[in-house]
C-alpha cells in the first residue's frame, strides 16, 4: 500500500444509489451486486462491507479468487455467483463446499461439477448460461438437449438454480434489434426448459443498461454493476431515463473520490519544455506543481496534456506527459498554493467537481475501464 494518494468510498452515496435502484426496479426482483474487477476499482472488501450495510446479500464476481474475497467479508451471510472463470478441480471443490454458485456454459464444466459434487456429497449450484446472440459464452441450441438430459439425470447432485444470458450492448440504441431478438430467444429457451419440467429458480439476464432500457429483462434477478457505483452505463441510458421522467436530475451519486496532495511547487521560465520530450513548452513564465500520481496508479497516459485536477478549489490542467509515478500541473494562477495542498483527481473540492466521465471524455476511456485500472495498492477509505 502506498500513501501517495487515496480513494474515498462514500457510504451515503452508495445508499442513495441502492435506494434509487431498488425503488426503480420491479418489487420482487432480487438485486445482485456485481463486484468483479475489484468492485469496479472500489475494492471488493470495502464495497461488500458497505453493500452489506444496505442489506445486499447477493454478489456476482468473475472468478473464484474474487469469490473467495467476497466470502472472506460476507461468510455465510452472502450468496456469491461466479459468472466467468474457474480454473481447476481444487477451485471446483472449494466452490461446491462453500455453496458458491456459478455459470455453466460448456459441457466440461458440468461434468467436472458432477464429479466434485459426488465426491463431496454436496450439490453443485449452477446457472445455465445460454447463447441468445451475444456470441461470447453460453450453450448453443445444439447443446441444449444434452444439457437438459444431464440436469434431469443428475438432479441429486446438480441444483438448477438459474437460467441466464447476457446482452450485447444494451446501453446503445444502435443495438436495439439485436437486444430485442435476444430477449425473444431467451424466452423460447426458457419455455423449452419448462416443457421438460426443468424450471430454474431464477431467470436472469439484465445488467444495468438492460434493466433500465428494457424493463422486461429484469425477470427474477438483476445483475447490477456500474449504476450502484453511481455511474450511468452510457449517456444514452441517462437521457432515456430523463425522457421517461420528464425531468433532468441525476438520481445517482458517485461513490468514489480520488485524492492526493501537492508534492512540490516551482517556477518555469518562458520557452522551457516541461517533462519528458517536447510535448509541452511554457509560453509564459509559469508556476508548476508535481503530484505523486501517474500511470502506475491508473491515471492513464492518454490524459497527458489533457487531464484536469482540482487544487485550491480551481480546475487546473495537466501539462506534459503523465509519468509512471507523477504528473505536472499548471498552477500559475494559484497564488497561495503550497506543498501538502489537497489535489482532487476524481471528486469534489469547493463548488467544483471532477467526475470520472469528464475525464473519460477527455481520454476516450469508458467509466468501466478507468475505474478498474485504479491500482489495487491505493488505500481505500470508507467515508461514512
Ligand atoms: C459485468 C456484468 C454485469 C454488470 O454490468 P453493468 O453494466 O456494470 O451493470 C452483468 N452481467 C454480466 C455477465 C457481467 O459480466
UniProtKB/TrEMBL annotation:
Positions annotated to bind substrate: 136, 324
One Gene Ontology CC term in the entry: cytosol
Molecular function, one GO term: alanine racemase activity
Alanine racemase C-terminal domain segment(s): 255-383
Broad class of enzyme this protein falls into: isomerase
Record InterPro entries: Ala_racemase (IPR000821), Ala_racemase/Decarboxylase_C (IPR009006), Ala_racemase_C (IPR011079), Ala_racemase_N (IPR001608), PLP-binding_barrel (IPR029066)
The keyword RNA-binding appears for this protein: no
Protein's GO biological process: D-alanine biosynthetic process
Keyword Transmembrane helix on entry: no
Modified residues (N6-(pyridoxal phosphate)lysine): 36
Its EC number(s): 5.1.1.1
Keywords: Isomerase, Pyridoxal phosphate
Cofactor field: pyridoxal 5'-phosphate
Record-linked PANTHER family: ALANINE RACEMASE, ALANINE RACEMASE, CATABOLIC-RELATED
Name by which UniProt lists this protein: Alanine racemase
Lineage, uppermost ranks: Bacteria, Pseudomonadati, Bacteroidota, Flavobacteriia, Flavobacteriales
Amino acid at each position: 500500500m502506498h500513501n501517495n494518494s487515496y480513494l474515498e468510498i462514500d457510504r451515503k452515496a452508495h445508499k442513495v444509489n441502492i435506494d434509487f435502484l431498488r425503488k426503480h426496479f420491479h418489487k420482487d426482483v432480487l438485486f445482485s451486486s456485481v463486484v468483479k474487477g475489484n468492485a469496479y476499482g472500489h475494492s471488493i472488501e470495502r464495497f461488500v462491507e458497505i453493500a452489506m450495510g444496505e442489506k445486499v446479500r447477493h454478489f456476482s464476481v468473475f472468478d473464484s479468487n474474487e469469490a473467495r474475497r467476497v466470502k472472506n467479508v460476507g461468510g455465510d451471510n452472502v450468496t456469491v455467483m461466479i459468472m466467468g472463470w474457474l480454473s481447476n478441480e481444487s477451485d471446483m471443490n472449494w466452490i461446491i463446499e462453500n455453496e458458491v454458485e456459478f455459470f455453466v456454459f460448456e459441457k466440461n464444466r458440468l461434468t467436472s461439477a458432477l464429479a466434485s459434487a459426488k465426491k463431496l456429497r454436496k450439490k453443485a449450484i449452477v446457472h445455465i448460461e445460454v447463447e441468445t446472440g451475444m456470441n461470447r459464452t453460453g450453450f448453443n441450441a445444439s447443446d441444449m438437449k444434452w444439457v437438459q438430459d444431464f440436469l434431469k439425470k443428475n438432479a441429486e447432485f446438480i441444483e438448477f438454480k438459474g437460467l441466464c444470458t447476457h446482452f450485447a450492448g444494451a446501453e446503445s440504441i444502435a443495438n436495439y434489434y439485436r437486444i430485442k431478438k435476444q430477449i425473444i430467444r431467451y424466452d423460447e429457451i426458457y419455455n423449452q426448459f419448462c416443457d421438460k419440467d426443468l424450471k430454474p429458480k431464477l431467470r436472469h439476464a439484465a445488467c444495468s443498461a438492460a434493466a433500465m432500457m428494457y424493463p422486461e429483462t429484469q425477470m427474477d434477478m438483476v445483475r447490477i454493476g456500474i449504476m450502484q457505483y453511481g455511474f450511468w452505463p452510457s449517456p444514452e441510458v441517462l437521457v432515456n431515463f430523463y425522457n421517461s421522467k420528464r425531468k433532468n436530475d441525476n438520481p445517482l451519486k458517485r461513490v468514489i473520490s480520488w485524492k492526493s496532495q501537492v508534492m512540490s511547487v516551482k517556477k518555469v521560465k518562458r520557452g522551457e519544455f516541461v517533462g519528458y520530450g517536447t510535448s509541452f513548452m511554457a509560453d509564459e513564465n509559469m508556476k508548476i506543481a508535481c503530484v505523486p500520481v501517474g500511470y502506475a496508479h491508473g491515471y492513464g497516459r492518454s490524459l497527458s496534456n489533457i487531464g484536469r485536477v482540482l487544487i485550491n478549489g480551481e480546475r487546473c490542467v495537466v501539462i506534459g506527459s503523465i509519468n509512471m509515478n507523477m504528473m505536472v500541473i499548471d498552477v500559475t494562477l494559484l497564488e497561495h498554493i503550497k506543498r501538502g495542498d489537497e489535489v482532487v483527481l476524481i471528486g469534489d473540492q469547493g463548488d467544483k467537481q471532477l467526475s470520472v466521465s469528464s475525464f473519460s471524455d477527455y481520454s476516450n476511456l469508458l467509466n468501466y475501464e478507468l475505474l478498474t485500472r485504479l491500482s489495487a495498492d491505493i488505500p481505500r477509505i470508507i467515508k461514512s
